[in-house]
From TrEMBL, chain A:
Keywords: Golgi apparatus, Membrane, Protein transport, Transport. The keyword Protein transport applies. This is AP-4 complex subunit epsilon. Gene3D superfamilies: Leucine-rich Repeat Variant. Belongs to the adaptor complexes large subunit family. It comes from the Eukaryota. It comes from Rhynchospora pubera. Residues 829-846 have a biased composition (Polar residues). The keyword Protein transport applies. Adaptor protein complex 4 (AP-4) is a heterotetramer composed of two large adaptins, a medium adaptin and a small adaptin. Subunit of novel type of clathrin- or non-clathrin-associated protein coat involved in targeting proteins from the trans-Golgi network (TGN) to the endosomal-lysosomal system. Residues 111-663 form the Clathrin/coatomer adaptor adaptin-like N-terminal domain. It is found in: Endomembrane system. Residues 847-862 have a biased composition (Basic and acidic residues).
From TrEMBL, chain B:
This is AP complex subunit sigma. One of its GO terms (molecular function) is clathrin adaptor activity. Keywords: Cell membrane, Coated pit, Endocytosis, Membrane, Protein transport, Transport. The lineage of its organism: Eukaryota, Viridiplantae, Streptophyta, Embryophyta, Tracheophyta. It comes from the Eukaryota. GO terms for biological process: clathrin-dependent endocytosis; intracellular protein transport. It comes from Rhynchospora pubera. Belongs to the adaptor complexes small subunit family.
Length: 1024, 165
């Protein structure tokens, strides 16, 4: 009987449902198709616009099938719809709201609906007793409005109140809305802290969870201590969900205030061994943060982390953590990140990791995205830890798979991975040059930028020109200021580091300034001015003037452009002022006219105007000092008049100085403003000895001697507080914020100590002479100031130009020293391939590569021997542990200080060079192939290709060499390094860099007036 | 670390927005607008990663919905791309064959799911089942209460729930 009843009820219910469906069908007979769940929903909400009904998730293969007729699935979804109206916590009003928002055709319509809704809610919420269930719905509606970007702040307090409710559902809603409404800085946070504290102690773990979620979002630095002990306690809660959330909360605390959880490290370690993999996975987050702060104190974790990773990779975790057939990939990735931090530069720690890394490389399938994500993370890890050849090979292989892939995502990851790997071994990029160039040409901006980042990392002096040109071309075309700034600063950095010549550098700078002027760091402009002012240094006056006049010419040309950035104009003004008339090509008045135009065109920009006025002053000073007459142009006169009355005191002062200067005699002017003296240090004698006569005289006349400040403080009542000298000597007489100290504890000085220049301690209260003295001091100081104005920058940056350390910035300077002793041999080298850019080498060597190789390596070996001597060569092999390129540079640098004897040796090594003299005929006929030119980007690659790739001996020796790196005794190789093979291989490896150095030298020399390196005849003379 | 998660449709309407770093309201507005503009017109062949100010936006499109995640520049892009997919799988599981409507009408539940999945800007739980179970527990309280309120002691209501839920 009971069964029958039950059955009846069920039947009735089913009928009910069926009837509803039927009704719906009837109601919407006009709707043509009813075949899928899509339509079902459509039926239910007939007025839903199309954009709401994008249902099935196309991209991923989801396990849910959509059947063509109403199935259980659809009934379920129908039931869901039904439920939504009655029980989902949302009433018809809410549904209507959402629906009408969905239908809104424009943003303004949507805004109108929401504003109306907010108005209703405001009215209803002001009602003192709202039923709690209603309140819940109102809050959700508020949250919805807030999500759409409207201000619902009037309801925040209700959300806070609801979080305090006893009913768990309401409480959860309260917490949810509070977390959505408030940030951790909000005033209402203080009200919720109490609730959170109470809930963290609750017996119901769901309440605790809700509170912990809120803790993550809402607790700020000040309130951390209020909840910290309870959260720590919860780390041992029996429910894993609570433990997990507690760990995450602590992670958040660490982000907000690292000191608050630093003592809890042991707790994290314990949680790492938690039974629940979810808790373990969550613990990795705070550990990652802690380890990235300080890796050294967590080295003991390496073993356990590796064993965890191993277990994960061996699928020991529950299968629920699998994702697309990969065992717990997200945990693996996190672990790999941590291992990368721990193993960085630590051989011992890294040793533990190789095995598991190899295994992951082996196991990971590269068909799925997630597999690739793990592979990429492995590559990152490998590139960060102490390198091991076997693992490195696997990483390289994975990277090349990425790069060869069709998917843009994978290419992007590949480029990034490549950028990491070339830090270990720059040669890896060679084989992927084509892929890299493809990416550079790709229409996808993200990929392009990533590629530029890679290029930036692999820039060397050989390929700098191509790369920087490309970067600038790209920079011109982008509009995103943020990225433009970045790429401009990168261009500048590369140009500063690797500039082959100063002319090139100036050109590049001009381009950068022209297109991204306002985004460039002012420091760059100062560097540029300094470069122009300093030129090459002392030895090469001619080149300097040439450089300057070319700069002046280019600037005069650029001034014709309509719109120039302020910073660039400053540079232009300064250079024109300083060197505009130096080469005598342009008359003073012409330059002055141009400068006046600049000042006029940028009348709102005070800085540019100031630069222009100073520049005009300099032109006048130089011309007058040289005894030439400069007539005052009318526009110049108006400019000065205008500036004299300017609101800016700086401008005014400049104008007055200018006027004062014009009144001086030519000799005085020359003293005040010596031409081309911007690089000379201004010596300021702080003791002002030239005044002592004057002071002595004043003191003899009865003036009071100077008392230094510290002494004066003790005797403050004897001197009138308003004394001029007091003010004069107190450099920072601003408001004093510290309390005035009592005069008592300070013992008055036993006697008034005469300062260095006063000798007679006659005391009188007459202060006038003293102040007069200070006045003259000022006058005298003024003089240097005028001079300072002559070089505006030095005055602005600091009084003194920093000359040391600058030279190294410019490429050729660093390289010139090592190559100086080897002038002769370098030019031979240059004749073969030094001067020629790598693309031409490539062309030329394509056919003749095979027979050339032994020559090249032999020649290089000889060259290296002649350059560095036997000892240096040996040292070089010793140094060949890890990073060949860097080491070789290092070797070049170390060998620099022992030049003279070597120089004598050089000419005695002629034969192989002579062989190569034939080559220029080949290289001199470069056909222009744009693609090849592009390959020039990977210049050294092409070069070392020649050297290393086909030579069997190199390959054979290289491998064991690499292998031995990571055994514990790298010195074994050193002891064997007398073996000729090793020597030749390492030299061949370093080949490109020597070549670079030579090329550097060559270009530097070409810019200067030194013997032309390209001329083989000259060489013959040298050789006798 | 994840900075924010946005769900937007093709028209740029925000369906869900969760911020893990404090932002001003006006700033949020701007961010949503900019992200939508960045993401909506990209060629499907292009990478799913876009640089956004000093961060990266990882996005994925499901029918008319864009799921965008803003992460740090050093984060593993592919992993977050898959993380979005995992989130969608969870939603799909929970709503059984999820559609945009589900997310719109149940946005509060989506927030709850998200809280189980990502906490404090990091992945908290990556097991689909664990999350679904947790959500089930929450739902259960609700249904228990409901059942109690409507009919007391009706053993067959469980079967009924099969239809209505």
């Amino acid at each position: 009987m009971k069964n029958f009843l039950l059955w009846c009820c069920k039947l009735a219910m089913s009928l009910c449902l069926m009837f509803t469906v039927y009704l719906n069908l009837l109601l919407t007979q006009t709707t043509p198709i009813r075949t899928s769940p899509v339509c079902f929903l459509f039926l239910y909400s007939t007025s839903t616009p199309p954009d709401l009904i994008q249902i099935s998730l196309k991209p991923p293969p989801l396990p849910f099938s959509s059947l063509p007729f109403p199935s259980m699935e659809q009934l379920k979804s129908l039931g869901r719809e039904l439920a939504m109206g009655s029980q989902g916590g949302s009433s018809k009003e809410f549904l209507d709201l959402v629906k009408s928002i969905g239908e809104a055709r424009s943003k303004s319509e949507e805004d109108r609906i929401i504003l109306r809704e907010l108005e209703t809610l405001r009215r209803r919420l002001s009602d003192p007793d709202i039923p709690r269930r209603k309140m819940k719905e109102y809050l959700l509606r508020l949250a919805y409005a807030e999500m759409l970007g409207h201000d619902a702040s009037f309801g925040y307090i209700h959300a806070v109140k609801m979080a305090h409710d006893d009913n768990i559902m309401l409480k959860r809603t309260g917490y949810l809305t509070v977390a959505l409404f408030l940030d951790d800085g909000h005033d209402l946070i203080i009200l919720i802290v109490n609730t959170i504290q109470k809930d963290l102690r609750s017996d119901n773990y769901l309440v605790v969870c809700a509170a912990l979620v809120a803790v993550c979002k809402l607790i700020n630095e000040e309130t951390i201590p209020a909840v910290l002990p309870q959260v720590v306690e919860l780390l041992n809660h029996p429910k894993e969900a609570v433990r997990k959330k507690a760990v995450m909360a602590l992670h958040r605390f660490h982000q907000k205030s690292p000191s608050s959880v630093s003592h809890l490290v042991s707790n994290f370690r314990k949680r790492l061994c938690d039974n629940d993999p979810g808790v373990m996975g969550a613990t990795l987050c705070p550990l990652f943060d802690l380890i990235s702060d300080d890796a050294s104190s967590y080295k003991d974790l390496v073993v356990s982390l590796v064993s965890i990773l191993k277990q994960v990779a061996e699928k020991r975790l529950p299968t629920t953590y699998d994702y697309h057939h990969m065992p717990a990939p997200f945990i693996q990735i996190k672990l790999l990140k941590i291992l990368a931090l721990l193993g960085s530069g630590d051989k011992q720690a890294s040793n533990h990791m190789y095995a598991v890394l190899t295994e992951i490389f082996r196991k990971c399938e590269s068909s799925s995205n997630i597999g690739n994500a793990i592979l990429y993370e492995c590559v990152c890890c490998v590139s960060s830890i102490y390198p091991n050849p076997k693992v490195l090979d696997a990483a390289i292989e994975a990277t090349s798979k990425f790069l060869k892939s069709e998917s843009h995502n994978l290419k992007y990851m590949g480029i990034d991975a490549l950028g990491r790997l070339i830090r270990i071994n720059p040669d890896i990029a060679e084989e992927h040059q084509l892929a890299v160039i493809d990416c550079l040409e790709d229409p996808d901006d993200t990929l392009k930028r990533k590629t530029f980042e890679l290029l930036y990392k692999m820039t060397k002096s050989t390929n700098v020109e191509v790369i920087v040109d490309r970067m600038i071309d790209y920079m011109i075309n982008i509009t995103d200021n943020h990225y433009k700034t970045e790429i401009a600063s990168r261009c500048v950095e590369l140009a500063e580091q690797f500039a082959p010549s100063n002319q090139w550098f100036i050109q590049i700078m001009n381009k950068v300034f022209e297109h991204a002027g306002d985004l460039v760091n002012p420091r760059v402009a100062h560097n540029l001015m300094r470069l122009i002012a300093e030129g090459f240094g002392e030895d090469d006056e001619g080149a300097d003037t040439q450089l300057r006049s070319s700069a002046v010419a280019s600037y005069l040309r650029i001034l014709g452009e309509p719109k120039l950035p302020s910073l660039f104009l400053q540079v232009i003004c300064w250079v024109l002022g300083e060197y505009g008339t130096a080469d005598g090509r342009h008359s003073g008045s012409y330059i002055v006219g141009k400068l006046c135009d600049v000042a006029e065109a940028h009348s709102s920009d005070d800085t540019v105007k100031a630069y222009a006025v100073s520049a005009i002053m300099k032109i006048f000073a130089f011309e007058l000092a040289a005894g030439r007459k400069v007539e005052m142009l009318p526009e110049c006169q108006t400019l000065i008049d205008e500036v004299l009355a300017s609101h800016s005191t700086d401008l005014q002062q400049r104008a007055y100085e200018f006027q004062a200067l014009l009144a001086l005699s030519p000799q005085a002017i020359e003293n005040v403003m010596p031409p081309d003296a911007s690089c000379e240090d201004i010596e300021i004698e702080t003791s002002l000895p030239f005044l002592s006569n004057y002071i002595n005289q004043a003191i003899e006349n009865g003036a009071r001697p100077y008392i230094s400040e510290s002494e004066r403080l003790g005797t403050v009542n004897t001197i009138t507080p308003a004394s001029a000298s007091h003010y004069q000597q107190d450099p920072a007489h601003s408001l004093r914020f510290e309390a005035y100290e009592l005069p008592k504890p300070r013992a008055p000085p036993p006697s008034i100590q005469p300062s260095s220049r006063s000798s007679l301690p006659t005391i009188s209260s007459d202060l006038v002479p003293v102040s007069e003295a200070t006045y003259t001091t000022r006058e005298e100081q003024h003089n240097p100031k005028v001079q300072t104005l002559a070089d505006q920058i030095s005055a602005e940056i600091g009084v003194r130009l920093k000359l040391e350390g600058v030279q190294k910035k410019w490429g050729q300077q660093t390289y010139s020293s090592p190559s100086a002793p080897s002038t002769s041999s370098s030019s031979t080298q240059k004749a073969t391939n030094g001067m020629v850019t790598s693309d031409t080498i490539r062309q030329s060597s394509l056919d003749s590569r095979k027979q050339q190789i032994p020559e090249v390596s032999a020649e290089k070996q000889r060259l290296a021997a002649s350059l560095f001597g036997k000892k240096a060569a040996e040292r070089k092999t010793q140094g060949s542990t890890r990073r060949p390129a860097k080491e070789s540079q290092h070797a070049v640098a170390t060998s620099a200080p022992e030049p003279p004897e070597e120089k004598v040796v050089v000419p005695a090594v002629p034969p192989p060079d002579l062989l190569d003299l034939n080559e220029p005929s080949e290289t001199a006929t470069p056909t222009i192939d744009p693609f090849k030119q592009l390959e020039g980007l990977l210049g050294p690659a092409a070069g070392s290709d020649v050297a290393s790739a086909p030579s069997p001996s190199v390959g054979a020796v290289k491998t064991p060499d690499l292998m031995s790196m990571f055994t514990d005794t790298p010195s074994i190789v050193d002891s064997k390094s007398s073996d000729k093979g090793v020597v030749s291989s390492t030299i061949a490896k370093k080949g490109p860099n020597v070549k670079e150095a030579l090329q550097k030298d060559a270009t530097a020399r070409q810019v200067g007036v030194t013997p032309s390196g390209n001329n083989p005849n000259l060489f013959k003379d040298l050789l006798g | 670390m994840i900075r924010f998660i946005l769900l937007q449709n093709r028209q740029g309407k925000t369906r869900l927005a969760k911020y893990y770093v404090p932002l001003e309201d006006s700033e949020k507005h701007k961010v949503e607008y900019e992200v939508h503009r960045l993401v909506v017109n990209r060629d499907p062949k292009f990478t799913n990663f876009v640089e956004f100010r000093t961060h990266k936006v990882i996005y994925r499109r499901y029918a008319g919905l864009f799921f965008s995640m803003c992460v740090d520049i050093t984060d593993n892009e592919l992993a977050y791309l898959e993380c979005i997919h995992l989130f969608v799988e969870i939603l799909d599981h929970f709503f059984s064959n999820v559609c945009e409507l589900d997310l719109v009408f149940n946005f509060h539940k989506v927030y709850l799911i998200l809280d189980e999945f990502i906490l404090a800007g990091e992945l908290q739980e990556t097991s689909k089942r664990a999350i679904i179970e947790r959500m089930g527990e929450l739902e259960n309280i609700y249904f228990r209460a409901m059942r109690f309120a409507i009919v007391i002691f009706t053993p067959w209501l469980k079967d009924l729930a099969f239809f209505s839920w």
